[in-house]
Design brief:
With 444 residues, this protein is mainly α. It is built from 21 helices and two strands. The protein starts with a strand and ends in an 11-residue tail after the last helix.
Amino acid sequence: MRTGDQVVQELPWRWHTQGTIFLVGGLGFMFDAWDVALNGFLIPLVGAEWGLTTGERGWVGTANLIGMAVGAFAWGGIADLVGRQRAFRWTLLMFSLFTVAGAAAPDFVTFCVFRFLAGVGLGGCIPVDYALVGEFTPARVRGRVLTAMDIWWPIGATLCGLTSTLLAGFGGWRALMLVMVLPALLVFWVRRSVPESPMYLVRRGRGDEARAVIDRLVARTGAEVGPWRLPEPQPAPRLTPRAVAAQVAALWRFSPKITSAAWAVFLTVFVLYYGALTWLPSILKAEGYGDYAAFMVATLMTAVGIVGVLVSAWLVDVVGRKWVIGVSAPLSALALVLFATQLEIASAAKLWIAVYGFLIQITIPALYAYVSELYPTELRASGFGWASTVSRVGAGFVPLLFGTVLWPHLGLPLTFVVIGAAVLLAMLWMSYAAPETRKHELDA
């Protein structure tokens, strides 16, 4: 007899059912992208207002990204312990409150503290959203759906670029931060209607709730389902430091190869991505671009990524997750090297940054879908969350190191060569250590 997990994974896809959860989850993902992209636009504006050095300006991005690293770790574990649906809502609420506080910051240190705390809230969106959407999505379309989730990222980053370009001269950086808050609070309210994951409920002994959620899904999709049963309930763990430490140990005990590959690929890809995203407006301004021109080129990079996500959503089920990641990530690093070597040729620089924006958005959605499928249900959110945490910690220091060490001493081309070599090594390890997950059912 089939279990409730299998019933959910075998249901037909319906936009008015699983698609609604995809859309609501994606909107939170959009704000994650908006906030990360905002760092690049805040750096020159905040730096000019408070007279910051290049190294000090790096803290604008570092404070926010380190907060997101803490949030990815904390919220991934919280979601596994207290439920996807609660974490699904609380992440955006925390982000909204501290973004308002940051917009009112009287000095740079206070500003960085609030950016860190806003990052803690928003850092939980990606692992929590992917875990929840993935557990409602039928197995046969899960790869495409989870990959398509990332289309919200370039949409959010592009909206950030357009808004920053329009508002930079009207209210400065404070207006850029406040404009995110009202729609974020609206999404927080909408998320109240999303049900708890039945895969989570059945493993926490809440059988009546799980059965009610699954019955509603069956009724709404119009599927004909035979007899099924709930798995034996498992005792719900308590949220303690020991429980969190046990989750980390469980990830490595499950598979050292898989966990090390997931962490290595996440880290190198996002060091590459955040380095370019955070500093591109400043690089262009140093080359003589004005605010408007620099912001528009940065927006071009994110806008072409929308096409990249669509291509990725098609490719992951055609050639597999590993091939998509392993080819597109090194090529995106190469595009950045070519951008840096031809920076003085405006047309060539714009071409290569657009190519980079397209390729990196083929890599990232495939990576999200891939890592979220490598772990069983009880480790899925924390497994994804820890991989995201490692990448955010490493990439979180990129704005600071980029502005104080890499760019000043190595120059842009060599900086991107070094990062690209690290990406290539991570791809080689992934090809050996981690399995392909295309068309695999989620492990129970």
